[in-house]
Amino acid sequence: MPPTPDAIAAGSAVPDRGRADACPGALRLHAADDGALARVRLPGGLLTAGQALALADAAEALGDGALETTSRGNVQLRGLRSDCDAELAARLRAAGLLPSDTHERVRNIVASPLAGLDGIGRADVRAWVRELDVRLCASTWAAGLSGKFLFALDDGRGDVASLNADVTLIAGPDGGALLRYGRAELGTPVADPVAAALEAARTVLDAAAGRAWHAREIPDLLPPGTRPLPPPAADPNPPLGVLPGGLSLGVRFGRASAAQWRLLAEASAGEVRLTPWRGAVLPGAQARWLEPLAAAGLRTASGTAWERATACTGLPGCGKSLADVRADAARALDGAPDAPQVRAGRPGLLPVHWSGCERRCGRPSGRWVDVLATGQGYRVTVTGGSPLDVTGRAAAEAVAQARRAN
């Protein structure tokens, strides 16, 4: 682990985290209750079918046989043997998933998953993803970024721009982009998007002085923007099913078995794009694959209570959890009524997140329904509202009602 940073002087604009971030990586494994955990960065969520198969093989050979997608379009392997680090690294290198040992934790890049497919975006940001990844890994200074630092490359539709990344590029009509720092309300026009994103990241790193993790923590030290940002998408998550140019699928709580991953690779036309909303887009995939994918347990249709529903790991994988939140959440979601249609540009259901403890790992931003395990049941709260302690079936009913408070 890197050394804990020194305390910062009183009155500084930069907060002191008091420690270096402990984000796991492909080489830095995290010890969990169910074994070691590895997080493999996938810039833009982009995978070849061969790489997806390599990850499925690694999960079966070294871990618990499943893979988890994260809110940054990365992949986690759980239940790993404590002595498998060298073999895992060798497998990832052979698949082209570990291009840099020194920079592997800072390759956090999300991108519009439908870019270049449906004609809505202004740029196919996959080219930006690849260029940014190469230049990031080639920049010695970039190894000093926090493992939590995030780039978002939005093709102009406003989907990943809604994630409030540390550095966001929003494609413009002229080949350039608006560059946004953190949660700023204005953006700066840039002609060379990738170069500008790297320069912005270095600005944040220098201003952070090794103490802050995110751009939003040092707003007074960042250059001001000059242009209003385009409005974000009402619901950035791509609809499920057949889309122009391929298929869109959902993965329940982001966790899929190796067999499901192999099916995704088989159904794809060679490329898999993981979304920050724990789904997958298969460019070029045919509609005939929907039935076998649904039969395998993947989500293939929108309009159910599973929309915008997330949960932390819970028991038995996390010893701090007070409940098997994913099992409880799945029962509640499977028994809930379907989601109402989107009206007036707003999603039909509020996001909901089940948490096993007060840390609320993986919680969404904005307005959401907080379902917190208490040891006797769950405490259900809509952001800014009053909590309601419930148990059993009453918990599921309280969550369904709270999600309609939109």
Automatic annotation (TrEMBL):
Cited InterPro entries: NIR_SIR_4Fe-4S (IPR051329), NiRdtase/SiRdtase_haem-b_fer (IPR005117), Nit/Sulf_reduc_fer-like_dom_sf (IPR036136), NO2/SO3_Rdtase_4Fe4S_sf (IPR045854)
Q: Which UniProt keywords apply?
A: 4Fe-4S, Heme, Iron, Iron-sulfur, Metal-binding, Oxidoreductase
* EC numbers on record: 1.14.13.83
Superkingdom of the source? Bacteria
Nitrite/Sulfite reductase ferredoxin-like domain residues are 37-94
Return one GO MF term.
precorrin-3B synthase activity
Q: Which of the seven top EC classes does this enzyme belong to? A: oxidoreductase
Tagged with keyword Transferase: no
What's the protein here called?
Precorrin-3B synthase
This chain's source organism reads Kitasatospora paracochleata
